[in-house]
C-alpha cells in the first residue's frame, strides 16, 4: 500500500486559492471583450454596456455646452426626459412578444390605426443604444426594435425597412407602400454600429454584420450612384424623383462611420456631394439666414429648393418640419469630426435666429422662408427650437443663447408635446449634454 503524502497546510491553502482564481478568470473571460478579425467587439456572455451613459464626449475644440447648469444636472435632465419618452412612446408589439417599436401617432391628424414609421424606429434605436447604462433594459428594447425592423422589410430591398405600419386588429402591417425612407434606414444602420460598440457582436445578434448589411443596402438602393446624392427612399428610381434629395437626411457623421465600417470609399463621394449641395443652397438661396429647404431637386443642372407640393406640402421648398432637423444633423458632424465645411452656414444660422428672435427662444416660430424674411407659421414648436441648441454649440459667442435654449426646451412637458418634438428634443439634449458619441470617427 502506497504511503499517503502529507502536504503542508499553507501549500494546500495556496493551491485552493489558485483554483478559485482560475475559476474566476474563466468566468470573467466569458464577459470580456476581444477584437475579432472583422473589427467587431465580441462579448460571449453578459450584457453590461461598454460605453454606459453618461459618456461626456470631447467635442471640437472651441465648442460649448450650457454653463449655467452643472454636468450632473444636465445628465439628470437627459435621464428624466428619456424616462418620460420611454414611458410614452416605447411599445411592445401586441401580437408578437419581444418586438418593440416607437409609437408616433399622438397628433390629431393621424389615422386611428397608424402606429409607427421607420423614422421613429431609427430614433428609438439610436436613443436606446446611447442611454444604455442609465436604462438597465436598454439592450432588451434595442434588440426588440431590431426584431421589429427585420419583421418589416422593404419590398425593394429586404435590408431596408418598410416606412409605415398600422394596426389592423390582428397584426401590425405595412401600409401606404412597402418601401423605404432613407432617414430611418440611416439611423438604424448607425444605431447598429453603436450597438456593436455598446454590447459587442458575440451574442444572438451580430450587430456589426447587420449594420454592414443595412449600410450596403442604403448604398445600393438609396444612393443615386451617378449624382452621388442620397435619394428620399428606395422607391425613387427614375425621373425627377431619382434626382431629388432631402437636407434632413444629410447625416454626414453617419456616412463617415459607414465608410469606416464597410471600407466602401464611395461614401466619400456622397459626403463631398452633400457638402457641395449645402454650400450651393446656402450661397444661392439663404446667404443671410443659413436655412435649408425641406426638399431639393435638380433642375437645369443645379440643385435648388423643391417647388410647392413637390412631395409633402406647399412648404416643400421652405425651412419646415423636415429641415428643422438640420441644425442637429449638421451640427453634430462638426462637433464630433471637426469638419468645418458647413461651419459658415451654421454660423449664419445662429446669428440670424438670434437677431430674428431678439435672443428669445419663445419667438422661434415653426418654419421660415429660406431668405429669413418671414415665418410660415405663427406658433412655437420644440421641433424647431431643440435642434438649434446643437448649432448654438459652435462657439462661445452663443453661450447666453445656448443657456436660454436649454432652459426653454427642457422646461416643456413631455406630456404636453407630440412625438416629433419630444424625439428631436431628447436627441438634441443627448448631444448638448456631451453624451453623443461615435463608433469610429475622430476629431480632425
UniProtKB/TrEMBL annotation:
Any Gene Ontology biological process: polysaccharide catabolic process
Enzyme class at the top of the EC tree: hydrolase
A GO molecular-function annotation: hydrolase activity, hydrolyzing O-glycosyl compounds
A Pfam family per the record: Glyco_hydro_8
Keyword Signal: yes
Known EC number: 3.2.1.-
Keyword set, alphabetical order: Carbohydrate metabolism, Glycosidase, Hydrolase, Polysaccharide degradation, Signal
Classification of source organism: Bacteria, Bacillati, Bacillota, Bacilli, Bacillales
Species annotation: Cohnella abietis
Name of the protein in question: Glucanase
Superkingdom in the source lineage: Bacteria
Catalytic residues in the record: 183 (nucleophile)
PROSITE patterns noted in UniProt: GLYCOSYL_HYDROL_F8 (PS00812)
Family indicated by similarity: Belongs to the glycosyl hydrolase 8 (cellulase D) family.
Amino acid at each position: 500500500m502506497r504511503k499517503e503524502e502529507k502536504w503542508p497546510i499553507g501549500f494546500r491553502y495556496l493551491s485552493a486559492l489558485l483554483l478559485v482564481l482560475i475559476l474566476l478568470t474563466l468566468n470573467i473571460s466569458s464577459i470580456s471583450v476581444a477584437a475579432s478579425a472583422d473589427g467587431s467587439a465580441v462579448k460571449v456572455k453578459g450584457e453590461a454596456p461598454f460605453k454606459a451613459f453618461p459618456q461626456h464626449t470631447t467635442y471640437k475644440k472651441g465648442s460649448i455646452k450650457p454653463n449655467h447648469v452643472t454636468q450632473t444636472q444636465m445628465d439628470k435632465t437627459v435621464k428624466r426626459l428619456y424616462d418620460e419618452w420611454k414611458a410614452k412612446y416605447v411599445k411592445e408589439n401586441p401580437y408578437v412578444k419581444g418586438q418593440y417599436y416607437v409609437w408616433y401617432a399622438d397628433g390629431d391628424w393621424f389615422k386611428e390605426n397608424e402606429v409607427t414609421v421607420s423614422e421613429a424606429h431609427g430614433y428609438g434605436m439610436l436613443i436606446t443604444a446611447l442611454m444604455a447604462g442609465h436604462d438597465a433594459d436598454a439592450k432588451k428594447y434595442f434588440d426588440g426594435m431590431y426584431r421589429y425592423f427585420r419583421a418589416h422589410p422593404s419590398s425593394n430591398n429586404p435590408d431596408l425597412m418598410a416606412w409605415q405600419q398600422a394596426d389592423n386588429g390582428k397584426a401590425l402591417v405595412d401600409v401606404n407602400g412597402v418601401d423605404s425612407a432613407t432617414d430611418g434606414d440611416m439611423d438604424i444602420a448607425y444605431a447598429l454600429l453603436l450597438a456593436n460598440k455598446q454590447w459587442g457582436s458575440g451574442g444572438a445578434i451580430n450587430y456589426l454584420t447587420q449594420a454592414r448589411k443595412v449600410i450596403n443596402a442604403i448604398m445600393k438602393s438609396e444612393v443615386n450612384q451617378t449624382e452621388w446624392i442620397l435619394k428620399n427612399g428606395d422607391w425613387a428610381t427614375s425621373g425627377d424623383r431619382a434626382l431629388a434629395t432631402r437636407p434632413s437626411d444629410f447625416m454626414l457623421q453617419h456616412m463617415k462611420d459607414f465608410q469606416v465600417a464597410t471600407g466602401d470609399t464611395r461614401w466619400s463621394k456622397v459626403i463631398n456631394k452633400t457638402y457641395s449641395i449645402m454650400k450651393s443652397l446656402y450661397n444661392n438661396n439663404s446667404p443671410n439666414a443659413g436655412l435649408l429647404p425641406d426638399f431639393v431637386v435638380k433642375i437645369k443642372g443645379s440643385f435648388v429648393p423643391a417647388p410647392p407640393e413637390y412631395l409633402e406640402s406647399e412648404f416643400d421648398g421652405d425651412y419646415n418640419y423636415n429641415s428643422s432637423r438640420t441644425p442637429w444633423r449638421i451640427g453634430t458632424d462638426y462637433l464630433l469630426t471637426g469638419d468645418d465645411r458647413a461651419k459658415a452656414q451654421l454660423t449664419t444660422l445662429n446669428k440670424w435666429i438670434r437677431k430674428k428672435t431678439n435672443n428669445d427662444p419663445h419667438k422661434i416660430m415653426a418654419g421660415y422662408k429660406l431668405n429669413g424674411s418671414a415665418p410660415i407659421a405663427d406658433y412655437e414648436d420644440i421641433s424647431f427650437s431643440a435642434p438649434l441648441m446643437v448649432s448654438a454649440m459652435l462657439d462661445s459667442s452663443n453661450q447666453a443663447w445656448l443657456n436660454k435654449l436649454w432652459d426653454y426646451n427642457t422646461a416643456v412637458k413631455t406630456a404636453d408635446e407630440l412625438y416629433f418634438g419630444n424625439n428631436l428634443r431628447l436627441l438634441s439634449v443627448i448631444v448638448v449634454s456631451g453624451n453623443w458619441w461615435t463608433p469610429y470617427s475622430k476629431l480632425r
